[in-house]
Amino acid sequence: MKRILLILLSTSVIVSCSKGSKGSAGKPGMKGELVPRGSAKSFIAERPYGMVSIPGGSFVMGMADQDFAATPEKAMPKTVTVNSFFMDETEITNAEYRVFINAVRDSIARGLLAEAAGEGGGEEGGDGGSIGDYAYAGKKTGDEEANAYQKFMESQGGRDGYNESKKLDWKVPLQYNTSAYPDEKYAEILESMYLPAEKRINNERIIDWSKIKYNYQWEDVLSAVKDKDRSANYLKKESIAVYPDTTVWIRDFNYAYNEPLFDQYFWHNAYKEYPVVGVTWDQARAFCDFKTKLKTDHNNSLKKKKQKAMRFRLPTEAEWEYAAKGGIENASYPWGGPNLQDSRGCYLANFKPKRGSYIEDEKKGNYTYTAPVRKFPKNGYGLYDMAGNVAEWTESPYSNSTYEFSSTLNPYLSNQAYREAKKTVRGGSWKDVGYLLMTGYRDWERKDSARSFIGFRTIQDIPSGAGKFKRTTK
Q: What's a single GO MF annotation on this record (predicted)?
């Protein structure tokens, strides 16, 4: 009897000392103590490529120098506090924005081809030799068998807006060169994305960019919390045509010869490192969502999963102004001020020096229109062109009450920002005089308007409890 009891006790010890499975089983804790599972290491924020870290702090927000205009819409000085965040070191360039629109274009093309391929899909690992190779990944022979969750969701018709069985196969190369089209069905699908022959100029094949729309959704959290109902009713669905409006170079200047910029500025490689313009506030927000999705998809593709990526967004005007000052208290300009030239007489930003003079002296560094990013000195936080070049969209609405009724702790009017047609624009541009480049100067534009002098840059929050950030490679 004693021998049997000893065997049972030994078995009990072996079971209790064995490592647990990945799933949750048994009672929580360790040796009767409340011990959280998982690593005790602190979270380290990963600095995204092309961004710099802005340490949180307090500052006096508003005009640091004399406000000559003295209008009520201008920033009335007050002390506010903002958290730490990452910020693009430059304005989003044409090259970066082209990655966005090309990805949307490719996604639409792959969706059309997958629908046309139907059930007669090719094999996994196809090289695009036939339209069958473009079938949905889940319908290809040789594809891994669906797991229990995928089978269940497919039987239920998928989630709203997403169907696992309609996952695109991005490994198959797309062909936009007509001589490389694999078959007639492929040609039929791809040609439907181009302007019809009767609308072409000089018979040039051009994508019908009005059809290239980015679809996404976001949650109106403030309204949901106010109504105590976190439900799908507060999801806002957006469908945004993403191609920038290149006609701004003509529309903004009716009596100026800007046709070369209209023809070349966005797509020509000579301008790839210039800031993108002709982008509305809604398009800028769509870009932020795409950038977030791109990082999230990458993290999910890794064998060793990373924590969900913090979302990218437009900065609030408080965050923008704090970053623009570069750590200098009451800085009139990103470099401090009050002069607009350095000791050698070179300009510190790209702007209009005098009435009618957009380029006083090339040797002094001025440009007739926009300038390539990183051409002028960076500020104390490592940010380029926080004054001049192009003005920048912010998340914040523009109204007399913006400053008065926003909090002094991370001022943010997200719910009002979406509904207000006027959005705050900061930084001044290549066509503006020096006064409009001041860090505290506020300007505005309607969110559905695109301009030849307005661009944007993105930011990403840094959790307050995060440790020192680590760099990412290109």
A: formylglycine-generating oxidase activity
